[in-house]
Every structure is written in structure tokens, then in C-alpha cells.
Amino acid sequence: NEDNLKQIISHSKEYGFVFQSSDIYDGLSAVYDYGQLGSELKNNIKSYWWKAMVQMHENIVGIDAAIFMHPETWKASGHVDAFNDPLIDNKDSKKRYRADVLIEEHVEKIRLKIQKDVDKGINKFGDAFDKEQFLATNPNVLRNQAKIDDINDKFKNAMNNDDLAAVKSLIEELGIACPISGSKEWTDVKQFNLMFSTEIGSVADSANKIYLRPETAQGIFVNYLNVQKTGRMKIPFGIAQIGKAFRNEIVARQFIFRMREFEQMEMQFFVRPGEEMKWYEYWKEQRIKWHKSLGMTDDYYRFHDHIKLAHYANAACDIEFNFPMGFKELEGIHSRTDFDLKQHEKHSGKKLQYFDPELNESYVPYVVETSIGLDRMFLATLSYAYCEEKLEDGSERVVLKLPAVLAPVKLAVMPLTKKDGLPEKAREILDSLKFDYYCQYDEKDSMGKRYRRQDAIGTPYCVTVDHQTLEDNTVTIRDRDTMKQERIAISELEKLLKAKFDL
Ligand code: ATP
């Protein structure tokens, strides 16, 4: 819930994960900085994704394209004309909303009603409950499903026909009220382009206007032949990229979920025309597997098929995550057809065909894309990991149960006391491990306090050096989640860490 989000925001700040941008000037709306631990967590997410994409697939390579691109790019991609959000203002509260989001939230409420009916059925019939049959026959469910279909149809039609008056009528017909004032008095719907622009060079005339990229994908499209030729890639093949993207989001709230400057991890997979649906299904499966490999439980994820397809797609879905605000988009998987490459051919005048040696023919490939927001993945991981626990002795602890591979600090090394050569011994251990694992040294305060500090930042292991260590070269190692301690030989430490952290 929203309170949970507030706790996560304050915990993030307190421990150096995320700060408001320009904090001393009271921040800049929807822009955030990652602190000392946040940047570690972010790097670990990036590397987990990059390894899964690039290192584990012989036919996927990575690039790093510039944020600035030739302005014609954004005409070709459709972003100059079609990258708009439909906005609506409430006359009473003067608050601005995205019309599509208001409608989606309304649909979500109806979906919850269906879920409630399903839950009732499960309670009543237990194992004998046949969900499929229930969904197909229960009159309440059928009525609610018909409502959802009707809303989706109307909205899709209105958007596809650029009929903004129809979007407004739909909001009024559904009786959607302003979440703040409760008023149903709405203005007309307006379109608002989300791209940031600036000028390149010294003269500020409009001919020099360029955009900050709103997605990383176009840097891949314009380079696809460079990479294909120099890397001798054969279709099907993919190009991966991690980088910043910028959108002038109007409704910017919910912490790092919706930012104006954010990072995407995208992979464009180039396939034979006609084979895109096969690969679309393949990547849906691969991506959900990637998420689940992190060990966050299945019930935190669901697929959501798009009703309103973007101008470039012939099939699209989201992987949604159960954020503190409810299920929301974390990643998009899109079948983008040959739209982008064909558009770039048209606008650049260059041929962007691939010669397929097996078919002995040339064609413009189709593209299946997986696109995940790094910051959203960060929020997903953090909100999943955040736990407040009551312990057996009645005390409480806050612990981040982060997947071990993503934890910012892998290991804390602590001397029991600051004397008798224990600090030196602890440093010796730390020095032998720090090249491979990010370790922290901590000798301040009681052991209990030190453990709490490491729990709060999600450190999977704490190693304590005591007097016995000096005699027999053993240490105690404490597990973050079970809080159990075990005595092991220092020489065993590396093997244990390798088993825990190496993929
Ligand atoms: P939304 O509907 O939430 O605005 P979108 O459908 O416009 O997202 P895409 O264009 O598909 O998003 O971008 C791919 C991914 O980039 C999204 O799944 C999301 O994780 C991330 N993303 C998009 N916009 C933002 C943003 N403003 N802040 C943070 N991440 C974002």
C-alpha cells in the first residue's frame, strides 16, 4: 500500500540508496539521484541483465549509443507526431491527469471485483473449484468482463481515431471522479508531447533543435546494419543496450516509478518476417524466467496484454509487478514489426535490408523488443525486499531481503573488539576478498547494532573475527535471513561466497 511506499522512500534516503535530485534546493520534481548503495544495487541489476542477455546468448551483442541523435530520427520513429499523452484537467481541483491512466484505473477496479468473486469461489469450493469454468459461466463475472471489454473497445477506438472528445465522453460516461476532489467536472482532453528538446551548436534557431531520446531503441535501429556487418551476425540476432531516456512526464509521482530522466535496458531481436510471433512468445517466456530466477515469488508477477497498441506494434504485453501501489508495468515486450526500419529507410534514403544467406534473399527484418526500466526494476527489488520483522526476543529489525546477487554489499567483516590484533586480522580477511566482492569493514558499536545496520542494507553475510580466530583461523559467519551463525575456517570462506554469489 501507499504507506509501504512511504517507508521505502524514507529507508532509501536514510541508507543512501536514493535521494531527491538537488535536495538542498528542495528537489526537482520526478528526478532522483542514486546514492552510494543505490548505485551499487543499480550496477548489480544492470550486470545481471547484461549477463543474461549478452553473455548467455551467442547471437546477442551489446552497444552504447549516444543520447543525442539526428532530429530526423524522431520524425521517422513517429515520436514527433505520435508520442503524446492524452491529458485532462479536473475543473475543481485543477489537477491534471492522464486520461488513459484514469480509464485504466477504472478498469482495474472492475477487474478486482472479478477477482473477489473468484476468491469467494475458492473459499467455498476449495480444490474442487474450477476457475476456467467459473470465469466462463458466472453471471456476475460475465457482466463485469463485458463492461471491461466495452470500455477497452471504446477507448481503443477513440485513441486510434484521434478522437479526444470521445475519450472525454468515456470518462464522463463511466462517472470517473477526480481522486482528490471527488468532482466529475472535466476539461477537454489535450495531447501533450513527451519529448524534451534543446539546441545543438551555438545558434538557438529552430533548425538546430534536437531531442533527448525518449527511448533507447532508436539508437539500436540506426546501428543495426553496422553491428550486423561488423559482427557478422546472422538472423535471428539481437542487440542489447542500457542507457538513459528522457520523458517530460506530466503526471510524475510514485517515486522512481515514473521519472523524467530514467534508464532503460532494451534488447531488439531481429527476425525473419512472418516469424515474429514465435519469437514474441519466446521472449515473453525468457523474460519472465529471468525475473523468477531472482527468487522473488511468482505471485508478484503477471502478464498484461495491451489493449491500446503503440503506433509501431502488432502485439504487445507488459510484465507487471506487484509494487506497493499495486500491479504496474515493469517491462514491455513488443512485436514492433518492420515499422522502425522501414521508416528509417524512408527518411534516410538508405537501404536497411539484410541478405539472408539461407533463403538467398534480402528483406527488412521484423523486430521483437524487450524493454525494462532499470529504475522500476530497482523499485520492484527494493519493495519486495523491504521487511519489518519482530524477533523472538521481542525486538524489531528492518531487513532488506535482497536477492544475494543484487545486494550492494556482499559481506561485512567485523572484529569483535577494537584491540588484541582483531582489527588487523579482520582487515587481512577483507583484503583477500575485496577484489571479487564488495565488502564493508565495521568495528563501531556493539555487534547487535552492527548486525542491524547490515540487515538494513541487505548484506547477505556478516563475518566476525574474535579471539578464537587468532588461534585456529576460524570465523563466525551470520546469515542475514535466518540470523543463524556458524563457525567456519577462513579458508572455506571463499568457496562459500562463490556458491552464494556466482551465477
Ligand atoms: P508507462 O505506460 O508506465 O508510461 P510505457 O508503456 O510508456 O510506460 P515503454 O515505452 O514501453 O513504457 O518503456 C519501456 C519501459 O521503460 C517500461 O516498461 C518502464 O519500465 C520504463 N519506463 C518508461 N517510462 C518510464 C518513466 N517515466 N520512468 C521510469 N521508467 C520508465
Structure commentary:
With 503 residues, the protein is α+β, with helices and mostly antiparallel strands. Helix content is 40%, strand content 25%. The strands form seven sheets. Strands 3-9-10-16-13-12-11 form a seven-stranded mixed beta sheet. A five-stranded mixed beta sheet has the order 20-19-21-22-23, sandwiched between helices. Strands 5-4-6 form a three-stranded antiparallel beta sheet. Bound molecules: adenosine-5'-triphosphate.
Q: From the alpha-carbon coordinates, what is the Rg to the nearest angstrom?
A: 26 Å
N- to C-terminal distance? 33 Å
CATH architecture title of the largest domain: 2-Layer Sandwich
CATH superfamily of the largest domain: Bira Bifunctional Protein, Domain 2
Helix content range: 25-40%
Low-pLDDT residue spans: none
The main sheet orders its strands as 3-9-10-16-13-12-11
What is the CATH topology classification name of the largest domain? BirA Bifunctional Protein, domain 2
Whole-number average pLDDT? 94
Q: Number of helical runs?
A: 17
Shape: globular
CATH class of the largest domain: Alpha Beta
Largest sheet: 7 strands, mixed
* Structural category: alpha+beta
Bound molecules: adenosine-5'-triphosphate
> How many β-strand runs?
23
Quaternary structure classification: single chain
Percent strand: 15-25%
Whole-number tally of structural domains? 3
Short description:
The protein is α+β, with helices and mostly antiparallel strands.
Give me the secondary-structure topology.
Layout: H1 2-14, E1 18-20, E2 32-34, H2 36-55, E3 60-63, H3 72-76, H4 79-82, E4 84-89, E5 96-98, H5 99-125, H6 131-137, H7 139-160, H8 164-173, E6 190-193, E7 197-199, E8 209-211, H9 217-221, H10 224-230, E9 237-246, E10 261-271, H11 276-293, E11 301-305, E12 315-323, E13 326-337, H12 339-348, E14 354-356, E15 361-363, E16 366-373, H13 374-385, E17 386-390, E18 396-400, E19 411-415, H14 422-433, E20 439-441, H15 447-457, E21 461-465, H16 467-472, E22 474-479, E23 485-489, H17 490-501
Parallel strand pairs: 3-9, 19-20, 19-21
Antiparallel strand pairs: 1-2, 4-5, 4-6, 7-8, 9-10, 10-16, 11-12, 12-13, 13-16, 14-15, 17-18, 21-22, 22-23
The structure holds adenosine-5'-triphosphate.
The site of adenosine-5'-triphosphate (ATP) has 16 residues, from strand 10, strand 13, strand 16 and helix 13.
